[in-house]
Amino acid sequence: MTVLLELFLTFSRISLIAIGGANAAIPEIRHAVVDIHQWMNSDTFTHLFAVAQSAPGPNVLIASIIGWHVAGIAGLLVATIAMVLPASVLAFAIGRVISHFTHRREYKLVQDAVVPVAIGLIIASGIELSLYSAFDVLTWGMVLGTLVFVYFTEANPMWALLVCAIGGVVAYQAGVL
């Protein structure tokens, strides 16, 4: 099987389970690209994820960057299409069907039940990334500081990214990282 076909099949499958968006599927993406296909190691995956998160645009960028890392521009295109197309078609089809049931009580129950699932998947993604990253006191301080900043202020989260990036550079220059 060619790498491009493997990329397409991998990200197509993952797109269908990404309830809550691409970030909710990070553990499965990491498992597929690191453990199953061995296209990269955990450190590279974590760095690519960080780049994808710091870039403006949709969370699906993680698939694009992985595709590019694995197979260049063709990989970028294949992985992006594979991550977007199946989920979009499924969402459209489900939307057409359930639009007839939005007035029913069961619709609201299902809708409410999906929220904690999405939250759980996103939290699991954060835990998954932390397990395969070199975390120390400084890194945990940045994580907690960002969490507090984003949760308790209405400021743009990019400020947290900027402060942590500068802090990381300073720590690296000082030999702490």
TrEMBL record:
Keyword line: Cell membrane, Membrane, Transmembrane, Transmembrane helix
Transmembrane parts of this sequence: 66-97, 109-127, 159-176
UniProt-listed InterPro entries: CHR_Transporter, Chromate_transpt
Membrane topology: Multi-pass membrane protein
Presence of keyword Transmembrane helix: yes
Location(s), subcellular: Cell membrane
Similarity comment: Belongs to the chromate ion transporter (CHR) (TC 2.A.51) family.
Protein name (database record): Chromate transporter
Organism: Advenella kashmirensis (strain DSM 17095 / LMG 22695 / WT001)
